[in-house]
Amino acid sequence: MSVYLDYNASGLVRPEVQEAMAKALADNGNPSAVHAAGRRARARIETARAQVADLVGADPTAVIFSSGGTESNAQAIVSALAGGCERLIVGATEHPCVAEAAMVSGAPVEVLPVDADGVVDLAWLAEALARPGKAVVAIHHANNESGVIQPIAEAAKLVRAAGGWLHVDAIQSAGKVPVDMRALDADTLTLSAHKLGGPQGVGALVLKPGREGVRILHGAGQERGLRAGTENVPGLTGFGVAADCAARDLDDAMAHVGWRDAAEARVKAAGATIIGGAVARLPNTLFMAVEGWDSPQQLITLDLAGVMISAGSACSSGKTKPSKTISAMGLDHLATGGVRVSGGWGTTEQDWIRFADAWIAAYEKHVARVSERAREVA
């Protein structure tokens, strides 16, 4: 039996979500139609909107549905610039969809550094905000690789004092730790269904009261004129149910801390370096690295052992790319050897144990091979 520990990449779809989506698929109607099927479809969308809003403490009218987190992050940045911001300050460990949307925006971009634990430098941010020009600041609530949680409320105070706009990518944190838009004081916040145990290809932008969104897809008046295109009714239905389940299961999510920490202690004793382990992290996430054993090799070895995890670096055309997060933390010597282990609603304590068993066994074999090659060269 395989073990799936890659929920930060995409969570397994919850049974409740599958059931709700199947019913929506069987009763499909265009939600813009006035007939009975259309009205039922519209009701499903508005129910989902309320469920998603409840997850993050927002008003349902503030939720703009989209095709996913990437689209919503792009819409947030465009909206902030249209709202009077002249420049961007983007966290050094942000997801590529935020960083690249900022780079192609046409506005000046500054990179907000992080410390050796992966936490944003608030003193640097204060100095940057004091410079001329209203800024949109993009900081994710939790890093997608390390799970490190950022001091969003503290950053918000700095942004407010400077008259700026704070965008928070909460795609990884929602459903794993409490996320309250009002407590975070974000101007915009983004979510994605497939991180919650919902379907892929569905997301949301949440607007603070008084903030206006700008549409980036044109053609019709869906989503209050802010997102053209016929809504994905089954997908949004699943998103809503997933948000409900995630809110219900928040306490259960904390059970991963003990399981994760036990596995972490074992791999650390075997030789792994824990990334971000000294600060607050998501309860389900373990990010680790070893020097000299590239992440794709680790993934393949563990996959053959029936354990599915993901890399802190990507492999393209046979070349290992260093992890952006590890590099930003000043740990370049580990940047090609990072792997991420992330549990979710279907994960058990035994899954974490199996991961630790498999990784330690694989690492011991790797070390033995390296030692043997060194002896042969000598």
By secondary-structure content and strand pairing, the structural class works out as alpha/beta
Discrete helix count: 13
Strand order of the largest sheet: 2-8-7-6-5-3-4
Fraction of residues in β-strands:
5-15%
Keywords:
378 residues; alpha/beta; seven-stranded mixed beta sheet; four-stranded antiparallel beta sheet; 13 helices; 14% strand; globular
Descriptive notes:
The chain is of the alpha/beta class. It has 13 helices and 15 strands. Strands 2-8-7-6-5-3-4 form a 7-stranded mixed β-sheet, sandwiched between helices. Strand 13 and strand 14 form a beta hairpin. Helix 3 packs parallel to helix 4 (96-103). The chain is globular and about 75 Å long.
Write the layout of secondary structure elements.
Blueprint: E1 3-4, H1 15-26, H2 36-55, E2 63-66, H3 69-82, E3 87-91, H4 96-103, E4 109-112, H5 122-129, E5 135-138, H6 152-161, E6 165-169, H7 181-184, E7 188-192, E8 203-207, H8 233-248, H9 250-253, H10 256-270, E9 273-274, E10 285-289, H11 295-304, E11 307-308, E12 310-311, E13 315-316, E14 319-320, H12 324-328, E15 338-342, H13 349-377
Parallel strand pairs: 1-11, 3-4, 3-5, 5-6, 6-7
Antiparallel strand pairs: 2-8, 7-8, 9-10, 10-15, 12-15, 13-14
Helix pairs in contact: 1-8, 2-8, 3-4, 5-6, 10-13
